[in-house]
DNA sequence: CACAGCCGTTAGTTTTTCTAAAGGCTGGTC
DNA sequence: GACCAGCCTTTAGAAAAACTAACGGCTGTG
């Protein structure tokens, strides 16, 4: 027996439900001619007449009724199974550094949840980049000097990483912007990247400076907000606080650093899932950052 | 959620069963590229990865396993329902004249049921041609001067209608074949078509003849078998009795009559049903009739 | 008789499905 | 390391299916 066109069964079930080709066509977003042709071809393929046609619509023949029962059961079975599978799939895990999470993502969480109301987002913070491959609904945002080379990943650069020195607006300081020499006379707040030390070493200044160290960039930034000194951090981490006037920038590295921020996601992303749209949204947010000074 | 392509599920189920795209393609009579594309599109539509691909074939992911289970259940449900429905449909109704039924069809019923062992045949005899359209599993055999003109029917000529005069082999007669003049001196048996009267009128002979009339051609033929006279009937109605030596032909009309025998069936015949094959068988039986004399 | 509402058909367009061909990857063998 | 077999993927183009728009027929109602 020639293979039944299973897609036609969906049309058949809708016609059977409504008893009316035109109404089924409306529901299915098809023309009534398409529905008519579909039913006709299905009848030819099956070798039975499924509907009696009349001026008040159609009614099922006995054979049609038996087809309808089986078809409804089968479609219900599939619908249930696939809705489940589809639903499970609107869950995305975002892997990123804890400071990026708290200083970049959290201030934008309202925007993200507004854009993707049905998204179930898991934010997993890490101190080191993931070593394993990303699953199909995972995104990672990570700094590095080269893009992600994992062949199962797709990768895109989000931004240069440019360092900026920030402090509380109330922090006593002579002028703005400051020269580096003046900066270094002030209490300096640095994170685990030891950015100040690297900066000082790079510029050749002396090393008798007051340094306060924190495990997390975010903590250093919070300390700066608290008036405890000058923090240096990537621009994207402090942008939101600058916008909110909790911080002011007092120096910016004229050269971007060697590192850039990358976003990676699995090549096995599939249609219907918002993962690529989330990637695009994040990309757009970075692109839309106002320039500092 | 975009509608799942149900036909692709059939492909998916076959790949899942074989764990191998190439083998599934072989079974489905598709190229391996077609199967690959089908699975890929299904994954995009569903938003999940269904298979892990490898050098030794494919294996289901957990989501794929869940899809497979639901798909197999649904396809099994449909297969069972539609195989049943297809089977029920081997019921054919044959409409024909009662004499054609008893004198042409009955002697061949063994051949027909041998050829179509699963056929459920209903023979409905009528004295007048059907006025309504034939249903999709109905065949009609009817004499006429023109083919069936009903636009929903298909029609084919089975045979010319040629009249033959027959009697019992034991019937007293001078010789064979007889001239018409001699014939007309004998008791003549005719049916409702009043074929003898028409024949006599057409040839211009006198009309003082002994005529026995019957409601049915078959009854006239049975009377001839009983030795009561000479019956005239279409060749196809007496062929079987001649073959069985119950009758002998003593005259045949040198010209075929204006009427021919036609077979009609519904244009809405559908694939998988034997109706066309039954029509062909009946056609072949008429074509295979041995010439009388 | 006119009209509304239904279904059916046709010709042509659009979309989907498929094939053929080319190519990449993995595991096994020599 | 080279080669091969067997697997899957992708692409371009052809074929088939699906669809639309338009036209038309039929039935029931007022």
TrEMBL record, chains A, B:
This is Transcriptional regulator. Pfam families: HTH_1, LysR_substrate. One of its GO terms (molecular function) is DNA-binding transcription factor activity. Belongs to the LysR transcriptional regulatory family. Residues 4-61 form the HTH lysR-type domain. It comes from Roseobacter cerasinus. PROSITE patterns: HTH_LYSR. Keywords: DNA-binding, Transcription, Transcription regulation.
């Amino acid at each position: 027996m020639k293979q039944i066109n299973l897609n036609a069964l969906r049309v058949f079930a809708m016609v059977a439900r409504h008893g009316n080709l035109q109404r089924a066509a409306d529901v299915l977003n098809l023309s009534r001619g398409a529905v008519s042709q579909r039913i006709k071809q299905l009848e030819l393929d099956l070798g039975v007449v499924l509907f009696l046609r009349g001026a008040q619509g159609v009614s099922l023949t006995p054979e049609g009724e038996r087809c309808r029962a089986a078809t409804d059961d089968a479609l219900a079975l599939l619908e249930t199974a696939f809705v489940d599978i589809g639903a499970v799939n609107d869950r995305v895990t975002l892997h990123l550094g804890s400071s990026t999470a708290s200083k970049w993502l959290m201030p934008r969480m309202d925007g993200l949840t507004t854009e993707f109301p049905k998204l179930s987002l898991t934010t997993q913070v890490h101190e080191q980049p993931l070593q394993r491959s990303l699953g199909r609904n995972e995104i990672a945002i990570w700094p590095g000097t080269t893009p992600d080379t994992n062949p199962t990943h797709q990768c895109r650069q989000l931004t240069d990483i440019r360092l900026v020195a920030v402090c509380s607006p109330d922090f006593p300081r002579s002028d703005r912007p400051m020269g580096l020499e003046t900066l270094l006379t002030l209490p300096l707040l640095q994170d685990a990247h030891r950015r100040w030390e690297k900066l000082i070493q790079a510029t050749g200044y002396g090393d008798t400076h007051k340094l306060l160290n924190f495990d997390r960039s975010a903590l250093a930034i919070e300390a700066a907000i608290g008036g405890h000194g000058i923090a240096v951090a990537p621009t994207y981490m402090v942008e939101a606080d600058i916008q909110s006037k909790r911080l002011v920038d007092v120096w910016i590295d004229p050269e971007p650093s060697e590192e850039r921020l990358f976003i990676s996601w699995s090549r096995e992303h599939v249609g219907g899932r918002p993962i690529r749209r989330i990637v695009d949204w994040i990309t757009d947010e970075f692109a839309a950052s106002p320039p500092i000074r």
